Amino acid sequence: WTEKNLNSVCFSRLLLFFSLQTFEKLLIANRGEIACRVIKTCKKMGIKTVAIHSDVDANAVHVKMADEAVCVGPAPTSKSYLNMDAIMEVIRKTRAQAVSLNVSICCSFLSSLSLQASEGVTFIGPDTHAIQAMGDKIESKLLAKNAKVNTIPGFDGVVKDADEAVRIAREIGYPVMIKASAGGGGKGMRIAWDDEETREGFRFSSQEAASSFGDDRLLIEKFIDNPRHIEIQVSLLLFQVLADKHGNALWLNERECSIQRRNQKVVEEAPSTFLDPETRRAMGEQAVALAKAVKYSSAGTVEFLVDSSKNFYFLEMNTRLQVEHPVTECITGLDLVQEMIRVAKGYPLRHKQADIPINGWAVECRVYAEDPYKSFGLPSIGRLSQYQEPLHMPSVRVDSGIQQGSDISIYYDPMISKLITYGSNRAEALKRMEEALDNYVIRGVAHNISLLREVIVHPRFVQGDISTKFLPEVYPDGFKGHKLTDLERRQLLATAASLYVAEQLRSQRFLGTPRIPIAKSKRSSWELSVHLGGGIYPVAVSKHGSSFSVEVDGMKLNVTSEWNLASPLLSVTIDGTQRTIQRISRNASGESSIQFLGTVYKLQILTKVAAELSKYMPEKAAEDTSSILRSPMPGTVVAVSVKPGDMVSEGQEICVIEAMKMQNSMIAAKTGKV
C-alpha cells in the first residue's frame, strides 16, 4: 500500500461514517459476553459506549472495554442490572443517545424508556408494543395463530392454581410443558408426565418465574416428544426513527439448537442438518409473517419445534440478540449488532432476501462454569486462576466477558464464553471445534469442556441424528466422561509416564546444567507403575533423544514432544497420532491429573520401588454422608420444609436451593429423623 492509497481508503471510510452516522454515545444495560459483543461493534462504528455494572462487577471486562462506566447497585440483578430508576438516571447523567438492553425486560422500564424518547433517547430494539406482545408467551401465541403461524396445542390462558393446572393437563393429555408466560432461558419451565409432577411443576415454575421475571403467570401446552429446536433469525426494515414500521422483512436462515439440558441450549449450529430448502422457506416465511404482524423493527429470533415428520410449531419469539447469534453471523457475513443500530436510527437494511446466503457451516459451544457430571451441569463458582482462549487457531471465535482472575459468582449466569468454529462444511467446523476445545485452558472452576467434546464427536451427533432428548438418551445414567478404548488407554498411560520422566530429568538440572557436578551419568530407562481407574499398569520407559519409547501391555509406543513443561498445553505425538493434553495438577506422591480427549483423568505414577512400598500406606476412609444433606451447588436457601425432630422418608423434600435463578429441591437420601 502506498501512502496515497492508504489516505484514499481512510478518506472513503470517513465519508461512509459521516454519511451513515448513527449515535455518538450508547448505553449498554447488560453485562458479560453480550455487553462486550455490543461494545466491539460500537468501536467499529465510532460510537462511544457507557457500561453499567453492579458493585461486584467493578473490574469486569465490559467495564474496562467501555468509554465510561457507572455503578448502578449491589450484586443482585433486581438491585443493579434491573434497577430501572438507577439506569434511567445514568442515561440522563451520561447523555446517552441510545440504549442497548438485553436483560429480562420489565414493562415499567419500557414505559420509562418511552418517556425518554421525547428527549431523544433511542432504544436499540423493537418498540414497546412488539416487546410486550412477544415477551408474553400467552399473547404471542394468540398473535401467532392470527398470523397463520403453526402453534403447539395447549391452553391459551393464564393458569390460576395447581388444581387448574392438573385439570388443563388432563384435558390436553400428558406429557405437558408448564412454562412461564414472561420466561426465557429455560427458567420457569417444567415437563410433567402425571398429576403429581404437574402440581410440583406449577409450584417451582411460578416461583422461578416470579424470581427471574417478576411475573409468576404460567401457561400449559402439549409437550412435543422427541422434537428438534430450530430458530429462524428475523430482521425487519425501519425507514425512520420512531416511525411506524413500513418496510421489508428478511429471514436469515436457521440455527439448530436441539442439544439442551434443563431446557437450556448447550450446542448450536447453523444451518441445520435436518431442513430441506422447502421446509426452510416455509419456516422463514412464517417467521416473517409473525414479525410483520407485530410490526417488528429490529433483529429478533422466532423459535420453532420440529417433529420427525418436519411438522413445525411456533414456540416463542425472542425480542433481543440471542446468545447463539454468532453462528448466523458466520454463515451470512452480517453483523447483527450493527444492523440493529442502523435500524434503530432509521436506516433501511442493505440486503434483499435473495442476498442472504448460507456460506459454510458454524458450530457454537456454550462453555459454562458447571460440573457436567452432576445432572449434565450444576453451577460452579470460583476464580479463574488460569485462562487461555484458543484464538491462535484458524476460524475460531470466542465471545466472552471474562479474563484470567475473573470471579464466577452465584449472582449471575455461569457462562464463561461462547466458543464458535467455522468451516466450509460441517465436518470441517466440527473438527476445528474438537481441536479448539482441546486447546482451551480453564483453571479455578469446574467447566463443561468434557461434555461439549463428547457431544460433538458422538456418532449420533456427527450423523445429525439429534433431538432435545439427545443428552438423556445418549447418557441415561448421567454423563461419566470419555470412555477410553484400549488404544486410548495405552496412549494416556504412555503420555503420563513420559511426562513423569521428563519432569524427573528436568528436576536434575538447573539453568541447563546438572545440579550436582559429580552426579552419575544420565539414566536411559525407567520402570514405573501407573494407577488409572482402579487398574495398576507396569510401564517401561526408555529415552532416545527427545523421544520416549514406552512399553505398555506388551506393546511399544513412541512418544515425542517439545516437553515444554511450563506451558499449560502440551502437544504430544504418539505413534504418529497428535494429541493436545493439559496437565491440570500433580503432587509429590506421584498423583497427577491430566486432561486427555477433553476428560480429566486422575493417575498415580510411582517408581517400581515406591509401588511396592505403597501397600503399607493406610488409606483414608471415605466420609459417610448418608445422614447428611449437602447442597450440590452454592446458592440461597429459599424454603425449608422440615424442622428438627421431624421424621422424613427417603425422597422427601427437605429444602429448596436457588442458584443462578434456578430452583432445586433437596431431598432426603434415606428415612430418618431431622
Description:
The protein has 674 residues and is of the alpha+beta class. It contains 18 helices and 38 strands. The protein has 6 domains: 102 residues, Rossmann fold (3-Layer(aba) Sandwich); 127 residues, D-amino Acid Aminotransferase, Chain A, domain 1; 69 residues, Dna Ligase, domain 1 (2-Layer Sandwich); 114 residues, ATP-grasp fold, B domain (D-amino Acid Aminotransferase, Chain A, domain 1, 2-Layer Sandwich), CATH 3.30.470; 114 residues, Glycoprotein, Type 4 Pilin; 38 residues, OB fold (Dihydrolipoamide Acetyltransferase, E2P). An 8-stranded antiparallel sheet has the order 14-13-10-11-12-15-22-20, with helices on both faces. The protein has an 8-stranded antiparallel β-barrel with strand order 26-27-28-29-30-31-32-33. The longest helix has 22 residues. The radius of gyration is 28 Å and the shape is globular. The chain starts with a helix and ends with a strand.
